[in-house]
Write a structure and sequence with these properties.
- The protein is α+β, with helices and mostly antiparallel strands.
- It folds into 3 domains: 7-86, Acyl-CoA dehydrogenase/oxidase, N-terminal domain (Butyryl-Coa Dehydrogenase, subunit A, domain 1), CATH 1.10.540.10; 121-229, Beta Barrel (Butyryl-CoA Dehydrogenase, subunit A, domain 2), CATH 2.40.110.10; 243-379, Up-down Bundle (Butyryl-CoA Dehydrogenase, subunit A, domain 3), CATH 1.20.140.10.
- 45% of the residues lie in helices and 13% in strands.
- The strands form 2 sheets. It has a 4-stranded mixed beta sheet with strand order 1-4-5-8.
- A hairpin with an 8-residue loop joins strand 6 (194-199) and strand 7.
- The protein is globular.
- It starts with 6 loop residues before the first helix and ends in a 6-residue tail after the last helix.
């Protein structure tokens, strides 16, 4: 197997870097930052759309550029490294799902708008009592003629405060086995009866929201896939969500800052023997995670939809970030745990922010326990407990 990059791929990486440098300049934009300028994100994503990169891997018929998965991986790596936004849920989750399960009318209505950056999407999956065991969700959708009436609550709805549309899992047959009575809907975020309330995190950011549905009426035509078969559609959506390389690249920026601190004789940070071991572990695990992520990309490029392979990438990458944050804290000592704004903080408190942010990575998009269950049952063929 060839682990290097071709001259053409290296050239594309340089092109991506130049584009980011020219168009993204609002802070660092990383997820662990206390605030992110949503207007600046929208402006940058419009620049991506105008350049044809918002949905670069999509087929041309849907507004994409038929870019290779390798190009998409390079774009994602460079974007995560610099904190630059990417396509959002419309480009990465909703669009690919509609291409597989959507009706022709749904594709014609939504895919061009996503490609033109006209709408932003948020995912309504988790509930207060249904997170890891997502199939136990209780938000109800009851048919009323050509519409469904939805009641319930979602939580950890990523980006809902800025979304134009939601894609939501609901229970349409409470008498069916829990995986077989779920339906998947799309709806405008300003539909009457929807209330969205931002959640404040320990980092000071508000990535997530809780979303309430009170007699929300949604056309039956907005269902993705078949009635009561939404779980199987959502499983494919989750595979798209878990298969990216962003978790692999997420710590590269802070790691580069850490190395600069260690190379600075005036920083006051001395690398001990155990610290050198931590540095070695960061380097080794980053390479392992990178290759696991590239395997997923190779599968996608071959026309396959990764399943347990995506879970392998997700669980290793998200837990690696937690280990790396802990390693950086050990190396830097007490100064590494000072928050932004402290006069004694290292690199203006970035390592404290990453440390506080990292645990959430092994919860969102399916907990590590869920990922290990998928690997065990679908990858290793072990029986369910």
């Amino acid at each position: 197997m060839e682990f290097g990059w071709s001259d053409e791929e290296q050239g594309f990486r340089a092109e991506v870097r130049a584009f980011i440098d020219a168009n993204w300049s609002t802070g660092t934009g990383h997820d662990w930052e206390p605030e992110r300028d949503s207007d600046a994100v929208a402006t940058y994503q419009q620049a991506l759309s105008d350049h044809g990169w918002l949905t670069m891997a999509w087929p041309e018929e849907y507004g994409g550029k038929d870019a290779s998965y390798i190009q998409q991986v390079i774009f994602n790596e460079e974007s995560v490294l610099t904190g630059a936004p990417r396509g959002g849920q419309g480009a990465s989750l909703v669009g690919p799902t509609l291409m597989i399960f959507g009706t022709e009318e749904q594709k014609l209505e939504h895919l061009p708008k996503i490609a033109r950056n006209e709408i932003r999407w948020a995912q309504g999956y988790s509930e207060p009592g249904s997170g890891s065991d997502l199939a136990s969700l209780q938000t109800r959708a009851v048919r009323d003629g050509d519409e469904f009436v939805i009641n319930g609550q979602k939580i950890w709805t990523s980006g809902a405060m800025h979304a134009d549309w939601l894609h939501v899992l609901t229970r349409t047959d409470p008498a069916a086995p829990k995986h077989r009575g779920i339906s998947y809907f799309m709806m405008p975020a300003d539909t009457p009866g929807i209330t969205i309330r931002a959640l404040s995190q320990i980092t000071g950011a508000s990535e997530f929201a809780e979303t309430f549905f009170e007699d929300v009426r949604v056309p039956a035509a907005n269902m993705i896939g078949e009635e009561n078969r939404g779980w199987y559609v959502a499983a494919t959506t989750l595979d798209f969500e878990r298969s990216g390389v962003d978790r692999v690249a997420a710590f590269r920026g802070p790691y580069a800052q850490l190395r600069r601190v260690l190379d600075d004789a005036e920083s006051g940070v001395e690398l001990t023997a155990s610290g050198r071991g931590d540095i070695a572990d960061i380097e080794i695990e980053a390479e392992v995670a990178r290759l696991i992520g590239y395997r997923v990309t190779w599968m996608q490029a071959s026309g396959a939809v990764p399943n347990y392979e995506a879970s392998m990438s997700k669980v290793f990458g998200s837990e690696m970030i937690q280990r790396d944050a802990q390693r950086a804290s050990r190396i830097l000592g007490q100064r590494g745990m000072l928050r932004p704004g402290s006069p004694h903080a290292v690199e203006d408190g970035v390592f404290c922010q990453v440390y506080l942010w990292a645990p959430s990575r092994s919860i969102l998009a399916g907990t590590s326990e869920i990922q290990r269950n998928i690997i065990a049952t679908r990858g290793l063929g072990l029986p369910r407990g």
